[in-house]
Amino acid sequence: MRVENACHTHPWTINTMQSCLAGRYFNLAAFNEQQIIGFYIGEKAGPDFTLMDICVAPDFQGQGIAKQLLAAFIEYGEKHHADNLFLEVRETNTRAIALYERAGFSEMSVRKNYYPSDDPSKKGHEDAILMGMTLLFG
Ligand SMILES: CC(C)(COP(=O)(O)OP(=O)(O)OC[C@H]1O[C@@H](n2cnc3c(N)ncnc32)[C@H](O)[C@@H]1OP(=O)(O)O)[C@@H](O)C(=O)NCCC(=O)NCCS
């Protein structure tokens, strides 16, 4: 929650976080010594795996940690025979979009007014971009 709260304008609640740590969810954390400095949370829904959350504590951003976490998410999908990987991202989150595109995700559709937004120009909501990647097995 410390990393989640430091990273997001609209962080998950602790209840949401706790409900996403078992069952059909999977995750990986990055550590600096004993301290969590980043993580991802994924969800399995049949052949489709979704990246629900990925973040890196501000002091550790720009060092390739998200890139490694995202590579681990993709590798988990490959290892567990996912057909497709999906994620949603705020249209204004250009940094995350660049990260996802470089990893091989591409835009599939736009979900209008999907996220709450504090940006005065956004009238309370902003669009989500749905991105996806198909995994191919030989
Ligand atoms: C998005 C986020 C996860 C990136 O984490 P990070 O550890 O700083 O990212 P990395 O250092 O692994 O960088 C990976 C890629 O991100 C992009 N990136 C990183 N820093 C960037 C910057 N300052 N400007 C633009 N793009 C940048 C680049 O595409 C970079 O690839 P490169 O190594 O080829 O340059 C992090 O900024 C974050 O936690 N943001 C808040 C939470 C969030 O928005 N999560 C995603 C939506 S749920």
From TrEMBL:
It comes from Pseudoalteromonas arctica. It is an enzyme of class 2 (transferase). PROSITE patterns: GNAT (PS51186), PROKAR_LIPOPROTEIN (PS51257). The gene is rimI. It catalyses: N-terminal L-alanyl-[ribosomal protein bS18] + acetyl-CoA = N-terminal N(alpha)-acetyl-L-alanyl-[ribosomal protein bS18] + CoA + H(+). GO terms for molecular function: protein-N-terminal-alanine acetyltransferase activity. Keywords: Acyltransferase, Cytoplasm, Ribonucleoprotein, Ribosomal protein, Transferase. Acetyl-CoA binds at residue 93. This is [Ribosomal protein bS18]-alanine N-acetyltransferase. Its EC number is 2.3.1.266. It comes from the Bacteria. Pfam families: Acetyltransf_1. GO terms for cellular component: cytoplasm; ribosome. It is found in: Cytoplasm. The active site is at 88 (proton acceptor), 100 (proton donor). HAMAP family: RimI. Belongs to the acetyltransferase family. RimI subfamily. Residues 1-136 form the N-acetyltransferase domain. Acetylates the N-terminal alanine of ribosomal protein bS18.
